Amino acid sequence: MPFNKREPVRNFKRSQFKKRFIVFIIGGMLIIGLQYMAWTGKVSSIPPLVYAKHAMDLKVTKEMRYGFFQSFHGAFLVKTENIDLENAAKKDKGAKSDTQDKNNEEENSISDVSGSISKPGRTEKSDISSVAAAMREELELVPIKTLLEAVLYLTAFFLIFWGPSWLVKRRFLPTFRPFWRQFWAGTISGTMCFWIMIMPLIMLNYGHPLFSTWIGPGALSYSTGTVPISYGGGLTVSYRMIADLLIFCPNIFYLSFAEYIPNWAQDFIFWGIFAPSLCGVIWGIHRMMWLDFCRGKR
């Protein structure tokens, strides 16, 4: 049987495809897992007595009570078991009295808990009714936001992972050497991936503002200092933090020459040219290094 010189190359390509497919599946599962963790953290579970003293009701079911805290930096969603909070507070008071003497401060604290049991809709008559309305809407939108964000991440991951290979197979830049074809295919895929990821922020203002301690309605927006990474997801599940991380490096480089660019051109230069190009070039270099590694391994 004649020896086929192309057979080892084909076997190598099949092996590489299988490995890449496995890596892609693992990466997709990791994205879904991280989004699930962000979803579970979006509505924090807290003890009933803490909920009774600090939270304000938004929704009550047979099993759970959903509400929100309003902190110095904004508001965030919480949940707890739907039990008789007043009786729980009294039992807690009795249990503590059996083990230690109560001072006046502790007695006042328990009294505050019993007297601040949340009732559905109580925030509607307060001076934070607008915050309550915004948080109620946010609670209702958590499932759909979680799903749409996951779809966005998986779409971008699919493009940046398989896009370069698809371009190369379509004889992208056929006159270039394979080394540079991989670079430009990776650069274009990385640029498109950046635009897809940042489109909700640019077009829908989803996740705004970035680089602040903003958590939810009523929050104070200001810089966190030397590390411009946001604290909390804001009115998103995880997108706000992902967007912060995505533009962190481009923003650092851009600030070194931003003062020389007119104000009217700042947004277009950064979002339309500089940040996507930088991310694309980084992924293109990665593709070149990967090709060089595979050649050396072969």
Strand order of the largest sheet: 1-4-3-2
Q: Please state the structural category.
A: alpha+beta
Query: Rg to the nearest angstrom?
Result: 27 Å
Strand content: 5-15%
Task: Please count the helical segments.
Answer: 9
The backbone outline, from C-alpha atoms, is elongated
The total count of strands amounts to 4
Work out the count of structural domains. 2
- How are helices and strands ordered from N to C? HEHEEEHHHHHHH
Share in helix: 55-70%
What does this protein look like?
By secondary structure, the protein is α+β, with helices and mostly antiparallel strands. The chain has two domains: 7-41 and 138-297, no CATH class; 46-126, no CATH class. 62% of the residues lie in helices and 8% in strands. It is built from nine helices and four strands. A four-stranded mixed sheet has the order 1-4-3-2, sandwiched between helices. Strand 3 (64-71) and strand 4 form a beta hairpin. The protein is elongated and about 80 Å long. 27% of the residues are buried. Mean pLDDT is 79; it is low at 109-127 and 223-228.
What attributes does this structure have?
single chain; 298 residues; alpha+beta; 2 domains; four-stranded mixed sheet; 9 helices; 62% helix
